User: What shape does this take?
Amino acid sequence: MGDDLLMPSEPGRQADRELGLEAAGAGPGEYAPDADGRLRHDPNVYGAPRPAVPQRVPLTPRFGGCASGAGVGLGAEGAGTAGYRRLPEWLKVKLPGAGDYADTKALLRRQNLHTVCEEACCPNLGHCWERGTATIMILGELCTRRCGFCAVAPGKPNGYVDHDEPRRVGEAVAAMGLRHTVITSVARDDLKDGGSGIFAEVIREIRKRSDTVIEVLIPDFRGHVDDLRRVIEAAPEVINHNIETVERLHPIVRPSARYDRSLELLRRVKELGGGAIKSKSGIMLGLGEEDSEVERTLGDLVGHGCDLLTIGQYLRPTPNHLPVVEYVHPDRFRAWGARAEAVGIGSVASGPLVRSSFHADELAGTVRRGENSKAV
Assistant: This one.
């Protein structure tokens, strides 16, 4: 596997014996129960060290620019930091703190939950939390992939799973009183089911406590259809999987993903879901893509059954991430939004600060524009 995919190492049978985890006569992956009758090794984990301890790893710097050949030196000079451009006015946001911000933050801390709002350094955090909304990120804070654009910390979760997390998520969603809830996750390639089982359990725990519309933003599960089917059978109303960028830029922007695999996932959502689940995707602009490539991507999304689409500006999280090639003007975002709808995508949100779950309730039709996102 490439160095962009972070998988746990296999310590081997001898190490298991030394730790006292392997039962006499047991085969690989079969371990004796502990004093409470619980297995201490999960056979659904790929070669996790025992006990499973997540390990954070540094992000590999990507100073070479984008796959387009653009990057540092293309209009980035003079910004004070190599590879950075000065933000235009349309990308500047106010500091958070008003509305329901404090209550939302306190609830998430109380339930010991992660949010993609924080982990991915989303510029809309203040706006969304003030509305009382947040996108909960399950399966930990360490991602087994290290995409060139993403601020989520890479690491080796080593098979660690918090099995109480679905209950806490269900309780948090009920307490937030949302009419539309978005759940996402890190990629968990260290788990044989890719984390799909926890996704399904989270959906079930939410259903026990709330009648909210559930949207899940999922990884590609490395193309394993059974994992996708597990999520579909839990029956969320919306399944989102981001294509992120045009096909040519995938090897650098998403080195562990594949353009065709992401499109196939969207097609399977419609096929396996019987048309009852809305499929959603998202793309970023500003990485060096050509207009003709964006046009083709829109056509590919339509051809694979995409119902909802977000289009937003790529913003560089740190100097170790891919540089911004262009800050796309809001007028062009409006034009791309209109074009996406014209080619057949049912509902589109397009703007510099649009992100995957930004006003997801409005995009999916759960609430009307400007309507309260909370159930009353």
Summary: The beta strands are 55-56, 114-115, 136-138, 155-156, 180-185, 213-217, 238-240, 278-285, 308-313, 347-350. The longest helix spans residues 196-209. Residues 9-33, 37-41, 63-82 have pLDDT under 50 and may be disordered. DSSP finds twelve helices and ten strands in the chain.
